[in-house]
Amino acid sequence: MSDIASFAAPTSHAQATGSLFAADALLPGGWARNVLLEWNAAGYLLAATPDSSAPRSTPRAAGPVVPGMPNLHCHAFQRAFGGLTEFRAEAQDSFWSWRTLMYRFAAQVTPELLEDIATWLYIEMLEAGYTSVCEFHYVHHDLDGRPYADDATLAQCLLRAAQRAGIGITLLPVLYQTSGFGGTPPNAGQRRFIRSTDSMLRLLERLQPCCEVQGARLGLAPHSLRAVPPDSLREALAGLDALDPTAPIHIHIAEQTAEVDACLAWSGQRPVEWLLDHAAVDARWCLVHATHMTDAEYERAARTGAVAGLCPTTEANMGDGIFDLPRWLAASGAWGVGSDSNACVNAAEELMLLEYGQRLQSRQRNVLASTQQPQVATAMTLQAAQGGARASGRTVPHGAAGLVAGQRADFAMLDARHPALCGLAAPDMLSAHVFASHRTSALDAVWVGGVQQTRAGSRHPLREAAAAAFIAARSHLIAQAQA
Q1: Which among 180, 160, 177, 178 has a CA at the least distance from the CA of 169?
Q2: What is the CA angle 137-461-138, rounded to 5?
């Protein structure tokens, strides 16, 4: 049973162990004044009460408070080669040539290196406004492709890194079996990823109590349709349901046009179309990227309640294409953002690039604003927080997310003294944070589960030591990859 499913929010304010009074706070229904946030010892909000009077003993927020942003898609080890693939390796570079370089780094990652890389990355995320991360974890085995004596070794490195940094985590062990549609055998670069369906289900059973102790969420990530044959997908989903019928399910899908073409050649159907016809896709699912869909696929996928996992900086870095978000929203689709390859680690940067991509595509401005929320930064923050919480498996039973009773007390405070924000109304401060600052510089502090994890200027107390360990890990990996 997950920590969310088993939690029933107490109603008595006398049980509050932490509180914060914000003159301005972004609640699920929009901006509110004089909001009293109260949470219990487990880190769940008991109340987010607007139009309150601040108790004398309650700390006051120095700037507007916004919901923490879930990062719904991350490959932690890839942070170690950020910036190192920005050269032309082939006459026409693409995701597929980038992937070859990625394999060289994946082949050298040890448990110690992974933990150092992930610890630094998760600290970067906190400093950039992310309060939880969905870790799409596919490097499972030792350097030679054989399982570690403890098959959960690398997964536990990620759990420890999240715990040390203080970020919430949804761990998504990846099922990866083939290198292409139709059961193409895996290649040498994928040897550390490969698992049988039975071994994946055993790994989930091994990890479940570890996640429960930490308050982490455990799910499953069938890597992609090209990497998981139909029988394996069906068996893995049935096994997951037997373990936890509420567990989140994430899958890469329709990211590249080459993937769409290969799926058509294999099955006569496009990837999203095939998935919807062969799996019971619902609100537990996150369709990562889903960049290339037809009108019918947009409509059908949105109706399932699945979250579109958008990673604008990585999708731009890879040359994937642009997700048609207005079309998804017209079908009432949910969405959130992720950092994916971690070439960029910045929650507001993902929102900015997402909106700018839509502007370039439609040749209009403020595309992702709504009738209810005409401020585009406000609308995007609320939608991404809601969709990200759902994809993380972290929404309360009634489905709300953000600053609402029963939800984790995850939030960020903007720096009202920052030159880009100073003197503005709260909605305009958020707009300036997303569109007119350096996007991390205007964050003042971040809380996860009611615990303040970054200090003034959004600096993490472990930043210097973690950065030094990361730099050493990266240097080791570069030396090994070049050997």
Answers
A1: 160
A2: 5
Task: Locate 184 and state its tokens.
Answer: 């193409």
d(CA 138, CA 174): 5
Which residue in 340, 410, 415, 444 is the catalytic one? Answer: 340
For a pLDDT cut of 90, what percent of the chain falls above it? 86
Q: 73, 289, 292, 433: which one is catalytic?
A: 289
**Contact in structure between 113 and 475 (CB atoms under 8 Å):** no
Mean pLDDT computed over 138-156: 97
- Both tokens assigned to 406: 């029963």
The residue written with tokens 């009077």 in the block is: 53
407-429 pLDDT, tens digit per residue, is: 999 999 999 999 999 999 999 99
- Is-catalytic flag, 289? yes
Name the DSSP class of 275: H
Handedness of CA 41, 43, 48, 53 (dihedral sign): positive
| Three-state secondary structure readout of 292-336 | CCCHHHHHHHHHCCCEEEECHHHHHHHCCCCCCHHHHHHCCCEEE
Regarding beta strands 217-218 and 221-222, do their DSSP bridges make them parallel or antiparallel, or are they unpaired?
unpaired
Q: How remote is the C-alpha of 337 from its chain's centroid?
A: 6
Helix (H), strand (E), coil (C) string for 88-156: CCCCCCCHHHHHHHHHHHHCCCCHHHHHHHHHHHHHHHHHCCEEEEEEEECCCCCCCCCCCCCCCHHHH
The SS3 assignment for 451 reads strand
Ranges 14-23, 96-105, 381-390, 416-425: which has the least confidence: 96-105
Q: Which residues, 6+ apart, have CB-to-CB distance to 163 below 8 Å?
A: 214
Q: Which amino acid is at 73?
A: H
Q: What is the pLDDT of residues 74-119, one digit of tens each?
A: 999 999 988 877 777 776 777 767 777 788 888 999 999 999 999 9
Q: 6 CB contacts (<8 Å, ≥6 apart)?
A: none
> 3-class SS at 289?
strand
As a whole number of angstroms, the distance between CA 483 and CA 477 comes to 10
24 is catalytic: no
